[in-house]
Design goal:
The complex is a heterodimer of chains A (274) and B (226).
Chain A (H helix, E strand, L loop, with lengths): L4 H20 L11 H29 L2 H14 L1 H10 L3 H17 L7 H4 L9 H7 L8 E3 L3 E3 L1 H12 L11 H16 L1 H10 L3 H17 L8 H7 L7 H4 L22
Antiparallel strand pairs in A: 1-2
Helix pairs in contact in A: 1-8, 2-9, 3-9, 4-5, 7-8
Chain B lengths: L1 H30 L3 H7 L2 H21 L6 H15 L2 H9 L8 H24 L5 E9 L5 E8 L7 E9 L2 E9 L2 E2 H39 L1
Antiparallel strand pairs in B: 1-2, 2-3, 3-4, 4-5
Helix pairs in contact in B: 3-4, 4-6, 5-6, 5-7, 6-7
The chains are: A mainly alpha (274), B alpha+beta (226).
């Protein structure tokens, strides 16, 4: 007799949460990547899996289904997950965003053929994804160091806990038999992979160090989603766009096409953007 | 009785649908990007920066939607537009960050040129896949020391709903792009992290060599595709 889905989900969640807490350790800033050695190995494993399993199947998928079908499938998955996102926005103290989710859900159900077409997006209603990782972040839980999970890819200890919680709190998962979520998760994974076949292939080819490319992209993207796209001037900002210990006065007036980089020391003592 | 329940249910359903309809009509425009709000936050700087990005985006989209032009010619025209509107001198310095000092003048110039070529090959080809997308202009924000972030969103196609922000800096020759941030991922930050390791291991020449190798790989790949 198969175990009920709830039991499996519960056991799995318990195990993942426990593992995550065990390896969490102290709060480490994600940039430092103390687990890089292990992460690189897992990353290589995932790359192999992608190369030998996911890409071939996703390529077939991409061949069979035209782009508008893939977009439709993506829209439906986004749509059925919308109530969950709404709840997360309430949990994060964002009633206005929760309201947007409600409007989006209702609009797409009525005017978008039950979610097949994302009419709300055409109307310019901004779309933000929410999940347990983000809610935990808003509640002040530290992410812990960067962690690459086998099969699931880039994450952090907090992200791992979030992922486990997400999988057992999906809105539509309660409406299906226990094996149903394998089919929906598989479909969603393949469809998403098919949409980004070319993009990923090119990123991989263009990257100088694909592991670092993915790590940096993941961490920045998460920070952005947690702040809902409104990353205000944070501490890193100065470091990213300015140097206080350098003076680039002369350079600023340089014309394009001038092949001489005029990079002089200047005695000016005010802060100058380069 | 059955009929009564039915009609009652019908009435509730109609009421609900009407309410939802009204809600979505009233709420959706109010929650979408409000042009009036953009005007309010926009002093001269944000207005100028927005105009610069808008003209850049219009020119790029115009080029992409041209019919009967082969890809190479398109990429050449796109390069011309982008090279004029991006401040590659600043971008190079920001990407190299503190390591900039380790490069001598010749290497600095080399890096700027190689990185430019690399970006154009890498992103030029990507851009060609997009032609029917629309770009929605959202708010613009004044950052520290006079920079402006212009926020846009791509509507339609595979990249539907992707946030694309342009970091603009006021130069003697107008507002120029110094960073592109896609879904929160900054181009400068991403390359800086990748380059940092190469420079610390192999020095400036090592990085320049890697950049030239990439150019070679790209050409080889294009040869295969042709």
């Amino acid at each position: 007799m198969p175990r009920s889905r709830g039991e499996v989900g519960h056991a799995l969640r318990g195990a993942v949460v426990l593992t995550a807490l065990l390896v969490w350790g102290c709060a480490t800033p994600p940039e430092s990547d103390p687990w890089e050695k292990m992460n690189r190995k897992t990353h290589a494993f995932n790359e192999g899996l992608d190369h030998y399993v996911l890409i071939p199947v996703a390529t077939a998928w991409d061949f069979v289904f035209p782009e508008f079908v893939q977009t439709g499938i993506r829209n439906i998955f986004d749509h059925v997950n919308r109530p969950v996102i709404m709840v997360h926005n309430l949990l994060q103290g964002e009633p206005r965003r929760a309201h947007v989710d409600l409007v989006r859900f209702v609009a797409n159900t009525i005017f978008g053929l039950g979610g097949l077409v994302d009419v709300a997006s055409m109307d310019g209603v901004p779309e933000e994804d929410e999940d347990w990782d983000q809610t935990l972040a808003v509640w002040g839980v530290d992410s812990g160091p960067y962690l690459v999970l086998p099969f699931f890819g880039p994450s952090t200890p907090r992200g791992t806990v979030g992922l486990a919680a997400d999988s057992s709190s999906g809105g539509y998962s309660y409406l299906m038999p226990w094996w149903g979520s394998f089919i929906t998760t598989g479909t969603q994974l393949l469809n998403t992979r098919a949409i980004y076949l070319e993009e990923v292939e090119q990123s991989r080819r263009d990257a100088f160090d694909y592991y670092i490319f993915v790590r940096d992209a993941y961490l920045q993207n998460r920070a952005n989603e947690i702040a809902n796209g409104d990353v205000e001037e944070d501490v890193d900002e100065d470091d990213l766009y300015f140097f206080d210990d350098e003076e680039f006065d002369e350079f600023e007036e340089e014309e394009p096409g001038d092949s001489e980089a005029s990079f002089h020391d200047s005695s000016a003592d005010q802060e100058t953007p380069i | 009785m059955t009929r009564n329940t039915g009609s009652l249910f019908d009435r509730f359903a109609t009421l609900g649908a009407a309410a939802a309809l009204a809600l979505s009509f009233v709420a959706a425009p109010a929650l979408a990007a409000d042009p009036a709000r953009i005007q309010a936050t926009g002093d001269e700087a944000t207005a100028e920066a927005r105009t610069a990005v808008r003209s850049l985006v219009d020119r790029v989209l115009g080029e992409l939607s041209k019919q009967g032009v082969d890809d190479d010619t398109k990429i050449k025209s796109l390069e011309k537009i982008v090279f004029g509107e991006f401040d590659f001198g600043t971008i190079s310095r920001l990407v190299l960050a503190r390591n900039f000092k380790k490069f001598n003048k010749e290497q600095q110039k080399d890096f700027e040129n190689e990185f430019k070529v690399y970006l154009s090959r890498s992103y030029g080809k990507r851009l060609l896949r997009y032609a029917n997308e629309k770009v929605d202009f959202r708010k613009a924000r004044v950052e520290k020391r006079g920079d402006v972030t212009v926020m846009t969103m791509i509507i339609g196609g595979a990249a539907d709903g992707i946030d694309m922000n342009y970091r603009m800096r006021n130069r003697s020759r107008g507002w120029k792009v110094i960073d592109v941030v896609i879904e929160g991922i900054s181009l400068i930050s991403n390359f800086r992290t990748q380059f940092k390791e190469i420079i610390s291991r192999d020095g400036p020449e090592g990085l320049l060599k890697r950049l030239r190798d990439k150019r070679f790989v790209a050409e080889e790949h294009e040869g295969e595709a042709a």
